[in-house]
Design a protein that fits this description.
By secondary structure, the protein is α+β, with helices and mostly antiparallel strands. It is 17% helix and 43% strand. A hairpin with a 2-residue loop joins strand 10 and strand 11. The chain is globular and about 50 Å long. Helix 1 runs antiparallel to helix 2. The protein folds into 2 domains: 59 residues, no CATH class; 271 residues, YVTN repeat-like/Quinoprotein amine dehydrogenase (Methylamine Dehydrogenase, Chain H), CATH 2.130.10. The strands form 7 sheets. A 4-stranded antiparallel sheet has the order 1-28-27-26, with no helix packed on it.
Length: 364
């Protein structure tokens, strides 16, 4: 990615060299015809006029050269910094001080900057910033649904409802102790609280808490299938059914569930602590065959429909289109991406180590 200051210096030097070259290559005018010698008074008057003209001409030329250089920098710099998210390559832009969460609807990308206490919005095609909203001391989780963007701020223990298009705060509510994740499903907003070991339900209109599911374990991540909510927790995968009054059942797994993703489908992807990925049937809770080794430590997991995407600590992102099948490499960021989100063919992620937002479009 180009350095704007370095580009400015280089273009300034190029403009100065071009001005020098034009001056050196200017032809020498022919000698004037012999004239009658001027009187002392006339010579003095013309000398004064010449001095005044030179005094004003030199700054004017210098100012004109600077203006031309700045115009060139603005024109060239604007084109050099233009980003377009395409298939087969990874684009990236700065995303604040500590981007820790990301969400997208395919048109806009939202990033939670825990370092500055901000939510930042970007155009999904060009990654150009569109708005910024201060939300609290430490935003840690995002979820999008309809016209609303939901933000969990662990620093103040609040759930915020923002306008997805402008960032305006539409409502706030208190969370339980140590909130870590948020999801929107079944007409409600769900906040996972590690400190209270609960999954709390909130009314989407009033942003007030209406119910809680007692998990009995500190949850790590939450998602939803067609009929249930799923929480990754130490010792197992938890299934919560809103239609039945929020009962919590444990789905036995061979490993420890660290991440979970489903995107409303009947395939629930589970990343385990032993470095394997498996899928679970959302209706029965039974695993689809054997697990697949990721090859490196998992850093983030997301899903689009029945397809899962896993980011690992070697800077790779892999797509899993079928349960039990080997993964397909789709992107390399060169650094661990610790938050992933996808919608349609758009795949985005954030890396706190580089403070950047990464984006690509995935081929079919």
């Amino acid at each position: 990615m180009s350095d704007p200051l370095r580009d400015l210096d280089e273009r300034g030097l190029q403009a100065r060299a071009s001005l020098r070259e034009a001056t050196d290559s200017r032809g020498v005018p022919p000698a004037p015809a012999a004239r009658r010698p001027l009187s002392r008074t006339t010579r003095s008057t013309r000398s004064t006029r010449s001095t005044r003209s030179t005094r004003w001409a030199v700054p004017a030329l210098a100012a004109a050269a600077v203006v031309l250089v700045l115009i060139g920098v603005a024109w060239g710099g604007g084109h050099a910094q233009r980003v377009v998210v395409t298939t087969g390559s990874v684009a990236s832009v700065p995303a604040g001080q500590q981007p820790v969460a990301v969400a997208t609807d395919g048109r806009t990308v939202w990033v939670a900057d825990a370092g500055r206490g901000l939510v930042r919005a970007f155009d999904a095609r060009t990654l150009r910033p569109t708005w910024t909203q201060r939300v609290g001391a430490r935003p840690v989780a995002l979820a999008h649904a309809g016209e609303a963007l939901w933000v969990v701020d662990a620093g103040s223990g609040r759930l915020l409802k923002l306008s997805a298009t402008t960032g305006r705060v539409l409502g706030t509510g208190r969370t339980s102790l140590d909130p870590v994740a948020v999801d929107v499903a079944f007409g409600s907003v769900w906040v996972l609280s590690r400190g209270n070991q609960t999954l709390d339900e909130y009314d989407a209109a009033s942003v007030s808490q209406t119910a809680s599911a007692i998990l009995g374990a500190p949850g790590r991540a939450v998602t939803h299938s067609r009929d249930a909510l799923w929480v990754a927790a130490p010792g197992g995968l938890l299934r919560i059914t809103p239609a039945a009054g929020l009962p919590v059942t444990t789905v036995p797994l061979a490993g420890d569930a660290h991440q979970v993703a489903a995107d409303g489908s009947q395939v629930v992807w589970v990343a385990q602590g032993d470095g394997t990925l498996l899928s679970v049937d959302a209706s029965t809770g039974a695993p689809h065959g054997s697990s697949v080794a990721l090859g490196a430590g998992l850093t983030s997991l997301t899903a689009v429909g029945t397809t899962g995407f896993a980011a690992t600590d070697d800077g790779q992102v892999t797509r899993f289109t079928r349960p039990g099948a080997a993964g397909q490499h789709v992107a390399s960021t060169g650094t661990p991406v610790e938050a992933l989100a996808a919608r349609g063919r758009l795949l985005v992620g954030t890396a706190p180590s580089t403070a950047r937002l990464y984006a690509t479009r995935v081929g079919r």
